[in-house]
Amino acid sequence: MGRGMGRGMGRGGDMEATVRKYLPENEHIVFALICTYTSLFGLFKINKALTKKPDPPKVAPVVAAAAAASGSSSKWGFEPPTLETFDEWEKNESNWKKWEDFMSGPLLEKWCETL
After folding, report:
1. Would residue 3 count as lying in a domain?
2. Same domain, 71 and 107
3. Angstrom distance (rounded) from CA 69 to CA 84
4. Main-chain dihedrals φ then ψ at residue 38, nearest 5 degrees
5. Low-confidence winner among 7-11, 31-35, 66-70, 85-89 (lowest mean pLDDT)
């Protein structure tokens, strides 16, 4: 491999001579490579942070108690709670009364038929 490369070209050719001019020891080259990899990783992270899309704004949960107070009711006689509104829904005693009426009334059978 070394014979056909020409005169004056060693193990890496002119490139190695240039690198060895500025980084004479093997430790210097290893340190330069580590710094280069760390810099590239840092630039990647900075670029990712700068181009990150902002999180969508959170929508405030609709309070079920307010819907019941407004006079609107569903076809089942009460406003059913959702996972987001259950905490507020359960604090209203009239919601529980409507729920108990629904569970013991004829509307439960109609609701079961829709399933």
Report:
1. no
2. yes
3. 18
4. -65, -40
5. 66-70
